[in-house]
């Protein structure tokens, strides 16, 4: 037998085995191929805009001039923010909006959830009723509230006049009440979601604890403070963090109802970003404000998370 024929006879099966891929590796490869569109989407629509906005925050760019109009300006955009009265007013209004919206809406939602969970018939009806504003368009809700808050023809001021208020506020047209009006609208629009979350938390509290408290002679207030609130800790922690994050992103009702006015009394950072980026086309300055907002939200969320981790028992 010739040596060349021996090698030819034994080499063919070894080469076929080497080319054959194990089934588990092929399944993994197919799985990664299915994930490729997701990775591409995250890179194109998430990662690239994030990094590009970071780059633009150090540049002066009028979007109308095209990419050739991008000029590096260092920290000029961040220095300009320190002297921008609209940015300072927006930051102040954002803080006030958060300080009022988060605790008031959570307190009202918790009260409503406890009542619905324990003492009300037709619980499903109330859940749906409170949840409808949350799933409705915020623009449609703002249009309704715009009619309700009309200075002379609105039902709210007519009611106040009927009960003896001589000079009712002009609400959205008043520098002292425009932000308060936005806060009222957003609390009403979002309270249904918080009620549903609180109801889910209340349903997970074991009834044995309340029965043991009844045997020990605890009243309703003691049971609420000693049992309900501590066991709702994870729910409260979740709502606090998500509400703080969403409160710094409020935009729709302000753009529709007040455009930040009157006299910047209801402007916020997101609306200031919109003004600079899509009205004045100063994308570099708008990106710098965006990163200021991102850092503020990140710091507040991190501090809230750290504090609640020490006080919440999971």
Automatic annotation (TrEMBL):
Bilayer-spanning residue ranges: 29-58, 95-116, 128-148, 177-203, 224-248, 285-305
Alphabetical list of PROSITE patterns matching this protein: ABC_TM1 (PS50928)
Ranges of Polar residues composition bias in the record: 1-17
Compartments in which it is found: Cell membrane
Signal peptide range: none
InterPro entries: ABC_transporter_permease, MetI-like, MetI-like_sf
Membrane topology (UniProt): Multi-pass membrane protein
Keyword vocabulary terms for this entry: Cell membrane, Membrane, Transmembrane, Transmembrane helix, Transport
GO cellular component, one term: plasma membrane
The ABC transmembrane type-1 domain, residue ranges: 91-304
Keyword Transmembrane helix attached: yes
Keyword check for Transmembrane helix: yes
Family membership: Belongs to the binding-protein-dependent transport system permease family.
Protein name in the entry: Sugar ABC transporter permease
